[in-house]
Amino acid sequence: MEKTTTNPMRQIVIDKVTLNIGVGHSGADLENAKTLLERLSERKAVETLAKVRNPVFHIKKGDPIGAKTTLRGTHAVEFVKKALHVRQFTLPKRSFDKEGHFSFGVPEYIEFPGAKYDPKIGIIGFDVCVTLRRKGGWRVARRRAVRAPIAAAHRIRKEDAQAFAQEVLGVKLV
Fold first, then answer.
1. What pairs with residue 96 in β-bridges?
2. 17, 79 in Cβ contact below 8 A?
3. pTM reported for the whole predicted model
4. Separation CA 93–CA 5 (nearest Å)
5. With bands split at pLDDT 50, 70 and 90, how would you rate the model's confidence at 8?
6. Which of 170, 161, 174, 171 is nearest to 13 (CA)?
């Protein structure tokens, strides 16, 4: 019998995990959001700026309205597993986009394993966005000289990402 092996360069891995809190305005709430992200991720959080003007919410273009931080490597994988624990390792199928990335929300940070309630911060939820990639081949699209598009066979589809989440992360899709 022949043993079928897959190309190790086609293996799917977590590229990065982005944590995001949208506050809608600057001030104490924004500082609390940044503090919370820094406590949970042990990384520096940065402000996100408004891209468009919205007079209904009194937002001008360029106003700080949220905070985010990015995790990579093994720290990112561990964080995703903890965040999925809050969701009982279940995600709706609509959480996955056509390019294979997925995201979900954590409604209250106090449900996160290891997080303690801080009355100064209050109750805040956050979004977890997981970006997937295949192990090899993406340098072709990102290098400075002789950039080339990624072949369709090397792209991650929605079905591939769902299979990865089920097998590697133990996610149940509903």
1. 102
2. yes
3. 0.85
4. 28
5. confident
6. 161
- Look at residue 46 and tell me whether its pLDDT is greater than 90: yes
Give residue 137's pLDDT: 74
**Angstrom distance (rounded) from CA 150 to CA 75:** 27
For CA atoms 72, 46, 51, 142, give the dihedral sign.
negative
Distance CA 140, CA 151 (A): 10
Domain extents in the chain:
9-137+152-173
DSSP SS3 for 174: coil
Q: Give the pLDDT confidence of 101-149 residue by residue, as tens digits.
A: 999 998 888 888 888 888 888 888 899 999 998 887 777 888 888 888 8
Q: C-alpha angle 72/160/139, rounded to 5°? A: 50
Contacts of 137 (CB under 8 A, 6+ apart): 9, 150, 151, 154
Does the CA dihedral 48-52-56-58 come out positive or negative? positive
Answer yes or no: CATH 3.30.450.20 is held by domain 9-137+152-173: no
Q: How far apart are CA 113 and CA 7, in angstroms?
A: 36
Biggest CA-to-CA distance, the chain: 68
**First and final CA of the chain: distance in angstroms?**
37
Percentage, residues of the chain above pLDDT 70: 97
Q: d(Cα 18, Cα 38) in Å, to the nearest integer?
A: 12
